[in-house]
Amino acid sequence: MDELVLLKIDSKPRLPKNWNYRKSVKKMKRLVLNWRNISVEILNELYIARTQLSAQGVRNDLDPNGPKLGWENYIRDIGLSKETVRRWLGRYDPETKIILPKEIEGTSKLTTTNKCPCCGYKW
User: What is the pLDDT of residue 47?
Assistant: First the structure.
């Protein structure tokens, strides 16, 4: 399981002659559900690893001949970049084990239709 497997991928997928909308939707629903479950498992394991490796009192530099194992070593060893993991964990809620939606940033005020009947204040 420590081996890196390279897959040769064609530049374009082959298009089937008889593509079926309903079959495709059914297939994709299953794949998306599996992808979400796997994503939460990955994020949960990353959160646990980061918490364990950054716990106060954990010293991995005491043995001068031993390996220096820390958070950065961990994410390098699993093949992810530090920035990618930081972004992923920023959107993960470990208490509810859900991936939070990406926040939308705006540059202007939001339009509103709510108005106080007494003073006319809009919100």
Answer: 94
Please tell me what DSSP assigns to residue 115.
B
Rounded Cα distance, 91 and 98, in Å: 9
Pairwise CA distance, residues 98 & 36, whole Å: 9
Task: Give domain limits for the chain.
Answer: 21-99
Mean pLDDT of the region 15-32: 88
Question: In which residue are the tokens 């208490």 written?
Answer: 95
- Mean pLDDT computed over 7-35: 83
∠ at Cα 104 (115, 32), nearest 5°? 120
> What pTM was estimated for this model as a whole?
0.58
- The residue-averaged pLDDT of 44-48 equals 93
The tokens describing 90, both together, are 């920023």
Q: Which two tokens stand for residue 23?
A: 């079959």
